[in-house]
Design brief:
Length: 321
């Protein structure tokens, strides 16, 4: 991880008082209030640059530092961004980890005065995430991410939200893209998240906002700490061994050479992608749930998982009788 904290005395770039943080990619030191202003300005600029004009926004809040920083910043920017803000937390059923996350999120959102809902994953897939993971050979985070995206989209679509906002950060997207390049997965490059994806209601797809896409994980952590925002810092018990982590470490070396490289890398991919015709994926509707899918047999990835989980349940129940 790049050293963000000041190791020699620096002055805030804006007001000249003693700085508390140094941001290498901006080559700037800031005091507490000017770092907060820098952070929130970046969120607003990212959304403006990608054409966001406001609307009804549902924020997915997991309890981690990214989404807790996001909901707090969006609440402060609510008028400037012209948004109506609501939140949802998905209880994934990952034992104490989920219990702890649920508690932190509920008390924080109540204190902030944001309307929110807690949704249990079982309502959609008839099993907890650890159970679903047991039935699959795919990495836990790939399955969990897929299910979370599906749930957020269907809640938002059914309740007439324009956008879902999530806490994807620069480390997430740059690592995802780096892995896609290094493992020769061009379809992942086309699929990588962008700061704003407009709604496609005709395909039952709500728009997506990732306002922190040009802010690092460290920026989010710092924003939480300077604003006394609580967050769950324990690692998710299912995340260990995720291969993305190895690719993430590569960035440490690259950033030592050029602190702006991570932002430049992601922006270069986005700009290149904009030049490519958008006709890459044909969407169809899932024959079970009616939400979109690109699969030829018209079964979306979540219904496929649901079918497998139910089949295994029936087998186990038969064995018991
Ligand atoms: Fe799900 Fe992976 Fe996040 Fe755990 S770390 S909550 S498995 S996406
Ligand atoms: Zn200052
Ligand atoms: Zn489906």
């Amino acid at each position: 991880m790049v050293n963000f904290l000041i190791n020699k005395l620096k002055r805030c770039r804006v007001c000249g008082s003693t700085a508390v943080v140094f941001i290498p990619y901006a080559n700037a030191a800031f005091c507490k209030s000017h770092f907060i202003a820098f952070y929130e300005r970046k969120i607003k600029k990212t959304l403006d640059d990608y054409g966001f004009k406001g609307g009804k926004v549902l924020v997915g809040v997991s309890g981690g530092k990214d989404s807790m920083a996001l909901i707090y910043a969006l609440k402060r920017l609510q008028n400037d961004l012209n948004i109506d803000l609501y939140a949802v937390h998905i209880d994934l059923g990952i034992h104490e980890y989920s219990e702890k996350s649920k508690k932190i999120v509920s008390s924080f959102l109540s204190d902030l005065g944001i309307e929110f809902e807690i949704v249990n994953v079982r309502r959609f897939i008839n099993a907890s995430i650890p159970k679903v993971v047991q039935t699959s050979r795919r990495p836990a985070c790939a399955i969990c991410g897929l299910i979370k995206r599906y749930i957020l989209n269907s809640i938002a679509y059914e309740n007439d939200y324009d956008y879902i906002a999530t806490g994807h950060n620069l480390d997430d997207v740059s690592t995802y893209l780096l892995k896609a390049f290094l493992t020769h997965r061009s379809e992942d490059i086309l699929r990588a998240p962008t700061p704003v994806s407009p709604p496609k209601k005709e395909y039952k797809l709500v728009g997506r906002l990732r306002p922190q896409l040009f802010l690092s994980e460290r920026d989010n952590q710092l924003y939480c700490e300077l604003n006394h925002i609580p967050y769950i810092d324990d690692p998710c018990p299912l995340s260990s061994g995720a291969s993305l982590f190895k690719y993430k470490l590569l960035w440490t070396k690259i950033l030592e050479t050029n602190p702006v490289s991570q932002i430049n890398f992601v922006k270069t991919v986005f700009e290149t992608r904009e030049k490519i015709d958008e006709s890459v994926q044909k969407l169809d509707f899932c024959k079970y749930c009616g939400y979109p899918t690109t699969s030829d047999d018209k079964i979306c990835a979540v219904c496929r998982i649901k079918l497998r989980v139910n089949k295994l349940k029936i087998k186990t129940d038969n064995r018991k009788h």
